[in-house]
């Protein structure tokens, strides 16, 4: 029986990835989290009751933690990171320290103790967000090979995006130097149950709709995004890790996201229809500072490599998400 390691296992992606792997493989799953951000809620408690799951409460910035990881993992998904826009501004030094140290220590451990496995680093579309500010335009749809730019190192928001940008360099060059298999994925607007409560547009809408806020505030109504349901997203991650097409050098960087572009106003109108409640009026407000007007990832590489396509429609995904938030209010 194979073993799979997921760091940040109690987080949004980590939880859903573990659940997906339990349902689709016979592997033993080891989840690592220090619960600084991840939650020991009802869903997670039910998940870790599965006898094929082992939970380790570890601080991955502490070198002694790596002695407890063991070895022999076929796949390692490194998801652990300090995320959340509020924290980028409040504790940028800690975001930088924790995200960078954790990745460096993980790569050192992997190269020495788990060399025959395969390493997946979860980056972010924040890694190239500065390119738009620096150059004024990015190709739409945006491919993986666009300039990675930190346009303002004094802006604390970059504390997170910079760790993903530099993290990609670490993974690329560690994999080359130590000759191990690795993969970089860049998520684009994953959504679904248990995605947190602060700073994410769909959970924010769910809370306001449940509270029947009227007039209903909408920020950046004309901005466009694509939204990838979490079940489709983690399935894409597994397919990429399972494929021998992502085993070579140089390692692959792959976008994961949907390709159905929608404005934020049309998104919330769709949610009103799904829920069966409409406010009397909308309070249209400007986008948050630094928000990108249009974001559309080119996911053709993902489709070419593994034949992935989304299976959960936006309507179905929004319904599942709203129902979860209705039953699990903040």
Q: What is the strand arrangement across the widest sheet?
A: 3-2-1-4-5-6-11
Q: Which superfamily, in CATH terms, is the homologous superfamily?
A: NAD(P)-binding Rossmann-like Domain
Number of spatially distinct domains: 1
- What is the strand tally? 13
CATH architecture: 3-Layer(aba) Sandwich
> What is the radius of gyration computed over CA atoms, rounded to a whole number of angstroms?
19 Å
Biggest sheet descriptor: 7 strands, parallel
Net shape: globular
Report helical residue fraction.
25-40%
Unreliable parts:
none
Mean pLDDT, as a whole number?
94
What is the CATH C level class, in words? Alpha Beta
Structure description:
- This protein is an alpha/beta fold and 330 residues long.
- It has one domain (3-194, 229-259, 297-311): Rossmann fold.
- The protein contains eleven helices and 13 strands.
- The chain has helices at residues 12-24, 42-47, 85-90, 92-113, 129-135, 158-178, 201-210, 230-242, 264-275, 300-306, 314-327; strands spanning 3-7, 28-33, 53-57, 75-78, 118-122, 181-187, 190-191, 216-219, 224-225, 228-229, 252-256, 262-263, 282-285.
- Strand 1, helix 1 (12-24) and strand 2 form a beta-alpha-beta unit.
- Helix 4 (92-113) packs parallel to helix 6, helix 7 (201-210) packs across helix 11 and helix 9 packs across helix 11 (314-327).
- The mean pLDDT is 94.
């Amino acid at each position: 029986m194979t073993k799979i390691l997921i760091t940040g296992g109690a987080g949004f992606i980590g939880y859903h990835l573990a659940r997906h792997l339990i349902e689709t493989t016979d592997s033993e799953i080891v989840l690592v989290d220090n619960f600084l951000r991840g939650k020991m809620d009802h869903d997670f408690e039910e998940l870790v009751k599965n006898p094929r799951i082992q939970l380790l409460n570890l601080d991955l910035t502490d070198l002694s933690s790596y002695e407890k990881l063991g070895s022999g993992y076929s796949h390692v998904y490194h998801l652990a990171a300090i995320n959340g826009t509020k924290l980028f501004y409040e504790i940028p030094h800690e975001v930088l320290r924790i995200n960078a140290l954790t990745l460096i220590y993980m790569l050192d451990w992997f190269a020495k103790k788990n060399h025959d496995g395969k390493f997946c680093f979860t980056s972010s579309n924040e890694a190239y967000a500065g390119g738009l500010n620096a150059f004024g335009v990015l190709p739409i749809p945006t491919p993986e090979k666009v300039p990675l730019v930190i346009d303002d190192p004094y802006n604390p928001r970059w504390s997170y995006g910079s760790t993903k940008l530099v993290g990609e360099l670490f993974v690329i060059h560690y994999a080359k130097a130590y000759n191990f298999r690795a993969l970089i994925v860049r998520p684009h607007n994953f959504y679904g149950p248990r995605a947190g409560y602060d700073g994410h547009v769909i959970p924010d809408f769910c809370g306001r709709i449940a509270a029947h806020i009227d007039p209903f505030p909408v920020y950046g109504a004309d901005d466009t995004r694509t939204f990838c349901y979490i079940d489709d997203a983690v399935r894409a991650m597994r397919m990429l890790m399972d494929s021998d097409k992502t085993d070579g050098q140089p390692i692959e960087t792959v976008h994961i996201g949907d390709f159905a572009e929608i404005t934020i106003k049309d998104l919330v109108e769709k949610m009103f229809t799904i829920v069966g409640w409409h406010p009397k009026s909308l309070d249209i407000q400007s986008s948050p500072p630094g928000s990108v007007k249009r974001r559309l990832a080119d996911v053709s590489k993902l489709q070419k490599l593994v034949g992935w396509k989304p299976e959960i429609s936006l309507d179905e995904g929004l319904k599942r998400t709203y129902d979860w938030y209705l039953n699990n209010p903040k």
